[in-house]
């Protein structure tokens, strides 16, 4: 991202945002609610149109008006805090829908990959179940499998533990940890500070739509330069969550 600007009406949500994500790395976006983390992810996937600046993916400017946005989105996986699984479809049907309908993958091939991914993420026995028969953690893992099924170049994760009971958070975060070990390029917005500290190669602190500070996890969490970053993180250290 270069000088990305986004407004909603009179509200300036992203202000001259610069962000670079290297392949096979994890970037964590941290900051208070309303700081612009989710909007940044939605702009990265072209779900929101930016007002100024430019975004590139693999050297291609994807915010160029001439670019096929649907083709771009096929290269990016997104997982939101709401699972958004189709309730009338089995887990496997949810996972194979995009590969078959959007990417033209034959049903047998899509189902084979879907079952392999479900097995890898501990959901092999749930392939033929419907979403309402799964726990929240299982539904979120299924949503991650659905995003992975299209073999994305980039995976965007937006507060994926926010809607989960505390005891289910760990199982979802373990999946993300496994994806990092497999080399998946990820950008995640999270309030799980300890997890961000442990998994991220790069941490960006957003404040009022600005990337106020960026650096390694070691630097941001142990030696933040900005007073605003220190105040934000102090809430987590004081509560014992970091």
Automatic annotation (TrEMBL):
CDD domains: ABC_HisP_GlnQ. It is a peripheral membrane protein. InterPro entries: AAA+_ATPase, ABC_ATPase_HisP-typ, ABC_transporter-like_ATP-bd, ABC_transporter-like_CS, MetN_ABC_transporter-like, P-loop_NTPase. Keywords: Amino-acid transport, ATP-binding, Cell membrane, Membrane, Nucleotide-binding, Transport. Belongs to the ABC transporter superfamily. It comes from Streptomyces physcomitrii. This is Amino acid ABC transporter ATP-binding protein. It comes from the Bacteria. It is found in: Cell membrane. Residues 1-233 form the ABC transporter domain. Pfam families: ABC_tran (PF00005). One of its GO terms (molecular function) is ATP binding.
């Amino acid at each position: 991202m270069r000088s990305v600007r986004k407004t909603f009406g009179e509200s300036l949500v992203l202000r001259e945002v610069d962000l670079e994500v290297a392949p096979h790395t994890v970037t964590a976006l941290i900051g208070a609610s309303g700081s612009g983390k989710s909007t940044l992810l939605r702009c990265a996937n072209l779900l929101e149109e930016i007002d100024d600046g430019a975004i590139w993916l693999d050297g291609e400017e994807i915010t160029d008006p001439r670019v096929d946005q649907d083709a771009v989105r096929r290269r990016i996986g997104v997982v939101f805090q709401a699972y958004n699984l189709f309730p009338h479809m089995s887990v496997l049907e949810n996972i194979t829908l995009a590969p078959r309908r959007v990417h033209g993958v034959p049903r047998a091939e899509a189902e084979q990959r879907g079952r392999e991914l479900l097995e890898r993420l501990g959901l092999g026995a749930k392939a033929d179940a419907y979403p309402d028969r799964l726990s929240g953690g299982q539904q979120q893992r299924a949503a991650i499998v659905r995003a992975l099924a299209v073999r994305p170049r980039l995976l965007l994760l937006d507060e994926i533990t926010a809607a989960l009971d505390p005891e289910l958070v760990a199982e979802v975060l373990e999946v993300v940890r496994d994806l990092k070990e497999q080399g998946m390029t990820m950008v995640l917005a999270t309030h799980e500070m300890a997890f961000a500290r442990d998994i991220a190669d790069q941490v960006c602190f957003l404040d009022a739509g600005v990337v106020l500070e960026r650096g390694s996890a070691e630097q941001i969490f142990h030696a933040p330069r900005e007073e605003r970053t220190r105040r934000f993180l102090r809430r987590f250290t004081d509560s014992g969550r970091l």
